[in-house]
Amino acid sequence: MSSEPTILVDGRPISLASVDPHQPLLHFLRERGLTGTKEGCAEGECGACAVVVVTPEGESSRFVTVNSCLVPAVGLAGREVITVQGLAEGEALHPVQAAMVETGGSQCGYCTPGFVMSLFAEHYREGRVPGEVWDEAIGGNLCRCTGYRPIKDALASLPAPGDDRHKRRLAQVTPAPAAVQHVATLEDGSEVRFHRPTTLEALFAILAAEPEAKLVGGGTDVFVEVNQLDRRWPVLVSLDSIAELRGIREDDAALTIGAGVPLSRIEDELGETVPMFGELFPLFSSRLIRNRATLGGNLVNASPIGDSPPALLALDAVLVLASAEGTRELPLSEFFLDYRKTALAAGEIVAAVKVPKPFPDVQRFYKVSKRIMDDISTVAAGFAFWRDADGVITKARLAYGGVAATPARATAAEDVLEGHPFDAMAVVRASTHLGTAFTPMTDHRGSARYREAMVTRLLEKLHADLSPRSEAAE
Ligand SMILES: Cc1cc2nc3c(=O)[nH]c(=O)nc-3n(C[C@H](O)[C@H](O)[C@H](O)COP(=O)(O)OP(=O)(O)OC[C@H]3O[C@@H](n4cnc5c(N)ncnc54)[C@H](O)[C@@H]3O)c2cc1C
Ligand code: FES
Ligand code: FES
User: Fold this and answer.
1) Whose CA is nearest to atom 50 of ligand 1?
2) In 3-state terms, what secondary structure has residue 413?
3) Does domain 245-356 have CATH number 3.30.465.10?
4) Nearest residue by C-alpha to atom 2 in ligand 3
5) In this structure, which topology does domain 365-473 adopt according to CATH?
6) What is the C-alpha separation between 146 and 109, in angstroms, rounded?
7) Which of 99, 312, 386, 394 could share a disulfide with 154, CB 3.0–4.6 Å?
8) What is the pTM of this model?
9) Probe ligand 1: pick from 70, 298, 305, max atoms within 8 Å of CB?
10) CA distance 63 to 71
11) pLDDT tens-digit profile of 259-310?
């Protein structure tokens, strides 16, 4: 434990002494003259601020891109960060930078440092096939003037990395982050405390002493509030180094996902085991956000338009809630009480999400939004059916977001689907209940009537997608 921690930035330790825990890494870097990392939106939308955090990966390491505008600098105490200013060797550009020059991937250049960092992480990604372009690698970076073609050409032109210092760094172990306790006295004389515990026991001891503490998972919601709404708390507690929240376990009864596992890891490790996740996460913000965002944050935020609740409600997920008193399990269907109000008790956290077995044999996630990628839902739906050998539905789950004050299931429609095959008549029967199941609102994303229509249309889409002709086309 250290009271005056540092961050290693491009190989150079920089002191975090007296840094306000609300200060994002982006501003911390820029205030120290590291202005290569740019600020565009300060809310995770543009990727101009992308940096790489060197992250433990068993006996080796991984380069993980994050939006530095949404990560507290003190949250990275003791960790290693690579910025766009740490790539070139003297006058010699890094191959990723040289490729951007060669293909004309930069015009005004404002977005370029962020793209370079995303390309850098992709260049060294285990399993990357040189010549192939994985769009997701740059999905969180926006460019207003160059256009994406030359940037994708830069990525396509990159050979496998040579035996350079970054490749050698990846082969080395990165220790798990240590516990941090940090206090800053601000200009107005007030004190802000920051804790980064590494065990649940330590977390609950901190919460007992600091009951007003604000928890930070990945910080992708909390730091938007810090940057855009100027929200401040006397105490911040980071959950991102608590090993018990970062595991994924599977046994005969359930798949248990730690509430602090970054969404990109769930996508990579479970996208095939649970196809709902394989459909959900590519539509959930961008890879940059998913490298930090967690299920715990998405559920406790309790937004009616959060994307994981409809998927997890359809999977009949159960939450493991933990506090100093122990743990309890609560079906997710009982978690959302009202608009942004949950059943979480004081001093309690979401520790894990359990997806019970057997998994449904039909599972689909649909998201209606103005853009396909990197957008917030107007309406989202998670559908799941458990069917017997004759195709008769034994259990149905139809869950929606964006149509009520909380994410919710259409239970009356579920009831009429059970005991029958999912044919055109079943859709008609369910539709009579879906039309009146919810009371959606009108806002800038869609009118109440539009949302109401989507509730039924998405079930019709499921039927169309499951028809033999659609399945053959897939
Ligand atoms: C650019 C951008 C795009 C986004 N796109 C989407 C999208 O497409 N779909 C979507 O659903 N969301 C989206 N979000 C919202 C956000 O990324 C998600 O809600 C994310 O899952 C939040 O997780 P987090 O760990 O970052 O939460 P945090 O910001 O760390 O926390 C959110 C809330 O949950 C609390 N909390 C966190 N973890 C726990 C826990 N384990 N136990 C108890 N309380 C906890 C915090 O105190 C806070 O109140 C987007 C956000 C941004 C900035
Ligand atoms: S400044 Fe736009 S994503 Fe960080
Ligand atoms: S080069 Fe100008 S925004 Fe991308």
Assistant:
1) 285
2) helix
3) yes
4) 108
5) Enolase-like; domain 1 (3.30.390)
6) 9
7) 99
8) 0.96
9) 298
10) 16
11) 999 999 999 999 999 999 999 999 999 999 999 999 999 999 999 999 999 9
